[in-house]
UniProtKB/TrEMBL annotation:
GO terms for molecular function: transaminase activity. The keyword Aminoacyl-tRNA synthetase does not apply. Its cofactor is pyridoxal 5'-phosphate. Belongs to the class-II pyridoxal-phosphate-dependent aminotransferase family. Gene3D superfamilies: Aspartate Aminotransferase, domain 1 (3.90.1150.10), Type I PLP-dependent aspartate aminotransferase-like (Major domain) (3.40.640.10). Residues 45-385 form the Aminotransferase class I/classII large domain. InterPro entries: Aminotrans_II_pyridoxalP_BS, Aminotransferase_I/II_large, AON_synthase_class-II, PyrdxlP-dep_Trfase, PyrdxlP-dep_Trfase_major, PyrdxlP-dep_Trfase_small. This is Pyridoxal phosphate-dependent aminotransferase family protein. The lineage of its organism: Bacteria, Pseudomonadati, Myxococcota, Myxococcia, Myxococcales. The keyword Secreted does not apply. Pfam families: Aminotran_1_2. Keywords: Aminotransferase, Pyridoxal phosphate, Transferase. It comes from Archangium lansingense.
Amino acid sequence: MSDVFEKCRSWKDYRIAKATGLYPYYRAIEESYGATEVQIEGRRIIMVGSNNYLGLSADPRVKEAAIKAVERYGTTCSGSRLLNGTLALHEELEQRLAKFLNREAAVVISTGFQTNLALSSILGRHDIVFADRQNHASLVDGIRLSFATERKFRHNDLEHLEQLLQQAAEKEPKAGKIIITDGVFSMEGDVCNLPRIVELAQKYGARVMTDDAHAMGVLGEQGRGTSEYFGLEKETDLVMGTFSKSFASLGGVLAGPSDVINYIRHKSRSVIFSASMTPASIASALKALEIIEAEPQRRARLLDIAEKMHNGFRAMGFDTGVSVTPVVPVHIGDQVKCFRFWKALHEAGVFANPVIPPAVEAGHALIRTSYMATHTDEQLDRVLDIFEQIGKKLDVIPQTRPSTYTPVQIARPGTMVRNNKASEKWAAASEGQNGHNGFTLDQLSRMSSREVAGKLFDAVETLTWRAANLQPEDIRKLGQVPMKLWEKRANIPGILLEKGASFFIRNGQHEDRS
């Protein structure tokens, strides 16, 4: 009889990552210095891994609002919105957000993730959801929890979306239809093609929803997000946002037609069976909204910073992909090298986030950086210097800067840009075409003992990681591997070390050419 816990005991990723010193997650922040710097393990480091885009989590006005709310209402509402958990503050925030977003009504929910789960309440058996393949996991789960049929279209591929819509119109003409997409995609920083999505929605009788978690407070003249940025607020039926980013709090909002929002209030499990936003969270979001409306210069500064960092990285030879926003991904490629890059950054005093498959395509591992309006030029220059040093050391960028590079046009109000043209390297990685074919014996014979030792260390580290975290290219190659060798895969790192040690003993008398 199998044990439901067996999968937990046999899961090796965590132990291997810890053993190799490449475990990047759950780093405890001990103290925060104005949000742009934090203390971890007693060291003060620059934070470029936060979604606190406007830097408001450290704003004295926001903190004071949270403190006053706790003094007035206590620390929690101790119940759901439906019963005892609705405060006057909740209603004020909803009214203010509906007005800010130019919608009839809005409902605030305890977390951003739960906000997208609330979608399941309006998606029925006879509905079809057309979803971008790179939508956030909360959208994926919200759709999955419903009884609706999901049809995924390739990322930002609107020809594929139209094919799916046309098929649905022919085969299921009576089905309700909605197109759901991220506004700004959280890993790669590009913007959805909302104008074309709206055009297709009108042609095929579909509704439109944008998840503006990374766009609200950032895009548009007033910071209202993707639909304002494209001038399509009336054509976008539902908009979702989170408070854990530009709003310096915790929670989420869905805004749209009043009858839809009212239905969600009374039917969504994530609303009626979950404790409501805390007084401090509501008050923080309210004060942040007030600042967002009153201080557009914060958005301008944020976009200036995004341009500086994109082009600073590109000038060194780094690839920041398709992003045109303050989400600035730095392409690394191999996931083990990505973790090594992250570790070197951390040790040098920069907090960033490594992103590996399945969050991105195989061969597409990247360091995700994101910026705040409150970062100083001195901090940003320091980050660029550290990236350049590590990039050269790990052979991610050339030793000499390229003579030219293509600058990035940022998604400023009125520009209507959606993405930066993908480089060949980025495109190849997205299609899973990156990889290293290894070294020939002739190449190895020309290396010094030190160089071979370095390559051997890289191979053992990579094999150890991949033994616990198989990649699609590994699986594709399984048919080419003799079964006996595959059965001994767990012993390969040890065998390599043993053979390598023997090699160095036999060749120790040779002159080191390093």
